[in-house]
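Page 47, continued from p. 46.
Same chain as before, 397 aa.
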Amino acid sequence: MRRLVVPLLLAFLLLPAAGRARSLTGTVRWQGQVTVSEPLRVAPDAELVVEPGSRITFAGGSLEVAGRLTAREAEFTGKRWPGILLKGCDAGTVLAGCRIAGARTGLKAIGGAPHLEKLILAGNEVGMELRQKSAAVVRGCRFEDNRKVGLFVKDEARPVVTDNVFRDNGRFGAYIFRASPAKFAGNRFTGNGTGLMIANYGSDPRIAGNRFTDNEIGIRVDRAARPHLNGNVLRGNRTAIRLYRRSDPLIEGNLVTGNETGISVAYSSYPVIRGNDLAGNGLALELEFQSSTWEEQKGSAARAAAAADRGAFGRAPARAVGEEQRRARDLDGTVDARDNWWGQDGSAELRRIGRGGNPSFIHDGRDQPTFEEGGKDYPLDRVRFAPWRAAPATEQP
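Result:
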């Protein structure tokens, strides 16, 4: 049955598309089946209320909100429609229990602090994008089957992202790009290409108490990002944590087990890996193309020649990252992985071989003295693993 609270609104929505968005003023209510076929804008002093059970279909139309939007238990859908755009919306904008599907970007928040709770964002190109210092609250949402990324946080956004599920997204479950969420905790990542990507200098959030299972890569840190990875569980991933291109995170108090590779360190990344449980992986820690000699001789030139300052997904960034920000501070040919638990078998092996031995669960310069790049050999760095813990560092669920 087709019905609207305001009958004249349907005729208004079905008018031919105009060159610019039409403004909604005052308080407007949508209920039932509503088709949007032109650009609409909720004016700064206006409010759009979408009643529970409504289905909003976008057929050539769009929705920009500069005022306030309240939507509960509604569905927003279409075929490659632009998505909902929130511009500077405060905490009075609340979307709860809604489904947003089929959009290029399901929901984009530019600035502001909207409350986005228990949403389902599925089958979009990008599920949700938060940018320009947005302080949105994203809680209890499901990001599923989005083709590129479930949640994209960028441009110094400071959202609270808690208790969400990221499942089966094509490239990334969540992507943090030059941003540091105020809180990023209690989220679950399953079946994604990369569960969580943290990229570029200026991305230094605390990522705490999240679970990563059955992803190709659980967490990837790239291009001079320096997050604090603390108290996460990473189990059953192909690679649990991948550090790439001058990334120096602090990795402490995590449970990393049952992965093909626990932590992979590559291309001049110098993390501090401390107080983790790294038992039960195919390989606990692997160094790849990781050389302080290469970094001293070629690091700066390689970064200058490469498109290392490109933005996320290859676009040009709003501001470039200088070499001073990317340069490694300490280059002594080692990666610091002291004070970790390597499991019962690993501990027995370490006691047998001592601090000068070559542990079977670590791949470094003891196993592969050099690698070739540009026709020249470079020494592969070594891992400092001593002293090690004699008992697990975390509770193991």
